[in-house]
Amino acid sequence: MAKSKILNSVEESQLEIVKNTIHQNIQTATPQNILQVACDNFRFAFERSIQIAGDRGKQSLTTSSKHINLFHEVVKSELIRNGVRADLVFPSQYNSSGEINFAGFIKAKKQDISAIPSAFINNETPETITVGMMTGEVDPFGKDYTENSLVINVRSQMSSIGKNNDTIVERAFAETLNLHMRCPQMVLGEFFILPITGFNMEEVKKQNPVYETVITTKANRRSKTTAESIEKTINTYASINNRDISKGEEYKYERLCLILADFSQNPVKIYRNDADLIADNLLPPHSTATLNGLGYDSFISDLMNIYSARFGTGKFI
Predict the structure, then answer these.
(1) Under 8 Å between Cβ of 93 and 128
(2) pTM, to two decimals
(3) Domain layout of the chain by residue ranges
């Protein structure tokens, strides 16, 4: 195992046990419970890392990416459940190495999960790029291979909803533009997992994995309640969801999935619809924000339907 620069050997060994545990647990999940298993193990990993080494433990886990790999496996499982042949998914199930480095308009970037049509496997066609900032560089896969691939990226954070939101969205915005501006037909998905409340960092420093409380009262005119932050988050992600290719809309995803979860609860409470949020007073009164079209249950099937309409059926068998 790679030695951490911020943990001592005892802490590193303890954290390695946590990483191995969550990896084993996700492998025993079923397609029916894998999202819940991923959320519960995501919570477990963060809480144990904090108990082991406080903020340093949390930072070390985050740097390792082992926690976010749980949700990579959720997406892979759903792709396979929806008819994609397992050997056409990269990286393969339960592996984090093997990401495909696709070239876009701005740069080449490793994609979290790629489904490659069977006709393109071992059929790369290297070509010199003629558009964008990579003009003159060689794309080892070729534009057709890239454009016909189904790509899904995964994002998360463990600070309260609303924090770092602009940065997360800017990255999401840039990723769609990078690929769509070179490959306008390409089908892109994004999976976001965001907490209702994050950790209380003062308690984290004391190695106590305590969560911040839901904000129900505005501290001042410029501040937001948790419900208002959730409303803004939903509206923000909805604005880059459901790309209409006839309008271009290169900045949008063909389909975006937003998972809002309360990690302070055990098991983790996953908000699957507006009614769940409203029942817990997590949307402002009379809000028009909606999770409709952003849900998990139809995320992959929607992407597959969009792909089939654009490129034809039976490409991943």
Answers:
(1) no
(2) 0.95
(3) 82-311
